[in-house]
Amino acid sequence: MKKISIVMMLVFAFIFSKAQNTYYPQAFFDKKLAQQMIGFGNSTIEGVASTKQKNNWGVKPLLGEKHYAPKGTVVMLFPVTPYFEEFYDMRRKYENKKTTVYMSEEAFKYRIEALTDDHGRFKFEKLKPGRYYLETIVNFTATASYQKQTGQSDAYNAYGGYLYSTPIYQTFFYGYSSGNRESKFVEIKQDGELKEIKL
């Protein structure tokens, strides 16, 4: 009975260690302010959504291949309210493989969406002056490679005695699907302004 209890404790400990933690901002969400901030104006934000394949260290190389967002990719625009600022700070500080930070359902409703075209371009029109946050997930197909030993080359001396072996490696390529989150803060200072950006 004691062994069963120990096993059960280990199982629960494993499940708990793999559990996903979820957090929400605690700031008050002012829906009137959010609604006012995304009201109609005369400004435009347009741009291109793209990403790069991350290397083994999770970094996007400057000279890496650029992947443009496929047609129909959703780009979201949020007004930067005090609630959103807390959400963004929490996500930047705490989000990882085991922790996710969400905004409330009500706050998530106060956004504008645009779809990308064949070249990854998108446009938000009729915006008021203010600070906005744009975000999208760019899905792409990439190619990676790995090396595998497929044989060895043996060296012998003039008398036929074995000296050493050198491994022979072959490079294999494979394709995989992935996606990166791309985002940017944009500020419109004057009504009628046109902002050109790259996500």
TrEMBL record:
Keywords: Signal
Signal peptide bounds: 1-19
UniProt KW Signal keyword: yes
Name this polypeptide is given: Carboxypeptidase regulatory-like domain-containing protein
